[in-house]
Design goal:
six-stranded mixed sheet; about 260 residues; alpha+beta; Immunoglobulin-like
Length: about 260
């Protein structure tokens, strides 16, 4: 009897262990690789590309989101004085806004954004999710209008945007692999950025992965930045000398080119 009980317990343990392994094998985990892990902003920098690849759970869709550090920004509010002249009508301060926000959805998620906006908004991953987090002062202004204009301004500068058709899938032995090329704008400023990858299925977030991307200046921009912040007196003297030199050079060129007689 004892032997039968021991045999039954061993059988159950093996069966449960095999079942757990089988379930783990069926659901592929989210794995993400990013290259490069850092971005160098030099004199010739005009944007860069990040290459993202990995694997997804079965039938899941990938969404890549890159965000910058949150902070505050000041804007001039324009309007018509006496309904005739456009001029500055005051200033607006927005707090808790990221310096960068790029969305890279799969084709399926791009379709979801357009055709099922309510389902998309419930995920809380898009630009509309910023609306409740942004603080605007002074208060009492048209919040929706200001946020809409803010998003347009950022999109025009390339700092906010949606990059469609950038994610591609491959079937590798039953595993859903993906790869994408994410373009970083020319207006990228030095700082720390977060690259998040989401695995989404049936309107639900299954998994999330995050990588830190460091953007730093190199070469002449780094030298000038260090000079301006750490050696301000020397920077000011050099700026004056450069201005004087440029003025002398322009005067010489105009004289040599047959200026006034």
């Amino acid at each position: 009897m004892r032997i039968q009980r021991c045999a039954l317990m061993i059988f159950l343990a093996v069966a449960l262990g095999w079942g757990g392994q089988a379930a783990a094998m069926m659901e592929t985990p989210l794995t993400v690789y990013v290259n490069p892990a850092a971005v160098s902003i030099g004199t010739t920098y005009n944007g860069d590309n990040l290459f993202v690849s990995g694997t997804l759970p079965k039938d899941a869709e990938a969404l890549i989101r890159i965000t910058g550090k949150r902070g505050n920004e000041h804007f001039k509010k324009k309007g018509k004085a006496l309904r005739v002249l456009w001029m500055n009508m005051g200033s607006v301060e927005m707090d808790n806004v990221p310096t960068l926000m790029l969305l890279v959805p799969s084709n399926e998620l791009s379709w979801l954004m357009t055709h099922q906006p309510e389902t998309w908004q419930k995920l809380g991953l898009g630009f509309e999710s910023l609306a409740n987090k942004i603080e605007i002062s002074p208060q009492g202004q048209d919040r929706q209008l200001l946020i809409g204009e803010f998003l347009k301004l950022k999109e025009r500068d390339g700092l906010y945007g949606i990059q469609s058709r950038a994610i591609h899938y491959e079937d590798k032995g039953g595993v859903r692999a993906f790869h994408a090329s994410v373009h970083l704008p020319s207006g990228l400023v030095p700082g720390v950025y977060t690259l998040e990858t989401f695995a989404i299925r049936d309107g639900q977030i299954l998994a999330r992965d995050a990588h830190v991307i460091q953007a730093r200046t190199v070469g002449m921009p780094a030298f000038l930045s260090n000079l301006a912040f750490n050696h301000s007196l020397l920077y000011g003297i050099l700026a004056v000398l450069v201005a004087i030199g440029a003025g002398l050079l322009i005067g010489y060129l105009f004289k040599g080119g047959g200026g006034a007689h």
